[in-house]
Amino acid sequence: MKLYDQFGREIPLSDARKPSTRTVGAVSLLDRWSEYPADGLTPQKLARIFRAADAGDVARQAEMFGQMEEKDAHLSSQFQTRKLAVQGQDLEITPGDETPQAKKAAEFCEEVLAGLSLDDAILDALDALGKGYSALEIGWDISEGQAWIHGLEWIDPKKITFVQSVTPRILTEAEPAQGEDFPPFKFVYHRYKARSGYDTRAGIMRVCAWMYLFKNYSIKDWVAFSEIYGQPLRVGRIDANAPEDEKRMLETALRSIGTNAAGIISKSTEIEFIEATKTSSLNIYQALTDFCDNQISKAIVGQTLTSGTGDKGSYALGKVHDSVRGDLIEADCKGLARTFRGQILKPLTGFNFGWDCPVPKARFLYEPPEDLKALAEMYNILGDRLDISQEHVAARFKIPMRKTGETPLLSRQLQLQPEAPITAKREVLKQTPDEQHPADVLTRQAMGQAKLMDISPVQALLEQCSSLEDFRDRLVDLYADLDVTALADVMRDAFTVAELAGRFDASER
């Protein structure tokens, strides 16, 4: 059978016999060096970085994206929120099918992953959210005829290049410019496509970079504004004939008052403080900064109401926005599980059980948040119409059934207590002969109080009418003077009697 890598390239059968144990992306001291392209960032400089990345040289773009996360607290927190939402989910490994070999392969893969720092690997792989791609080198170990994974090492995104290639290549000491192709089954390469296109342009950071730039301009001007208008303007007045040393003393005093709030001047010198009133400019800076933060939040987590505080919004709308973010989490979980299955579980299974063995399935156990109160109300309504088992409801709400010998809840205890003596029932039985049903007695009493026992006019009207429609229209006129309030009381009592009659019959069985 033919084998293909994660980029669709055919793998020679010689490379499918055992994995490569050599280290390709070795970490060196030179990896610490950076050009810090985000320092002094301008629109022209940002455009040049993007154009270079589009041509395949993504080193400066990767360095800039890393700096952006370091320097912008809001940007960093939003990415952390999205990454940790996936990292907090458990990864489930299940057999590819029901054959014994598939089950054995799934158990082996689960054992190997349990020995890895999987949380760190998930966080490193999700670096693709911002940059569009991420790479981890698989550390293989062959012992006792089995191929094991002893580690997953993160590869700095700037060590990946797309120069003269549509697939990623890794920069090494042997190939520091053009890079080397990924050896088969040696790297985990995770893609995140915020939109269709090349991996170098697919990251969310490409969208956030412009908002980051404009926000930096706003904050820079805001700081300068605070330095100028945050303190009152100090104006010193001195006699024109004052000596030079006294003028210099006044200037020194004015500057000292600005920072130390203290100064020494002569009696003939006057200092005036003029308060700044540029409040409208302050609102402009803050509004622009908030706008940029909101756009960044929309790009990363898909909403704004749960990512910060604002002047407008509601809890209900926040819950709706949170469900949108849940869609992103579910998509991240599915994409990462697909990458792990194809690039970790597949070679683990192939090298140890043969390439025709079914590959175990990987799934993050993510469940969208559910309104349990609304679900309980729905079951309460359906319980009167459908024969639903207690076991199903317990499994749906993840509440275990009470075992024999365990103490029931207080509300259940009250339901299990013996019923108190029904004195009203006995009173009715005393007043009714044995051949009459208590409900009949109560019904006659209620209708007698409402003076509705005489139904002869209705019978006479029915004999006179030729159709049901005629009877319906004339029946309204027959009871035109009927007291509606009294009729409502009778109907209420009738429903009560009907329910009591049912309870009575049930208790007699």
Give descriptors for this structure:
509 residues, single chain, mainly alpha, 12 strands, 51% helix
Topology summary:
Blueprint: E1 3-4, E2 10-11, H1 43-54, H2 59-71, H3 73-87, E3 91-94, H4 100-114, H5 118-125, H6 128-131, E4 133-143, E5 146-155, E6 160-161, E7 169-170, E8 180-181, E9 187-191, H7 205-229, E10 233-237, H8 244-260, E11 270-274, H9 279-301, H10 315-353, E12 361-364, H11 372-382, H12 390-396, H13 410-416, H14 423-431, H15 438-449, H16 456-464, H17 468-478, H18 484-508
Antiparallel strand pairs: 1-2, 3-12, 4-5, 4-9, 6-7, 7-8, 10-11
Helix pairs in contact: 2-3, 3-9, 4-10, 7-9, 15-18, 16-17
Task: Describe the protein.
With about 500 residues, the chain is mainly alpha-helical. Helices cover about 50% and strands about 10% of the residues. It is built from 18 helices and twelve strands. Helix 2 (about 60-70) crosses helix 3.
Short account of what is shown:
This protein has 18 helices and 12 strands. With 509 residues, it is mainly α. The strands form 5 sheets. The chain has a 3-stranded antiparallel β-sheet with strand order 5-4-9.
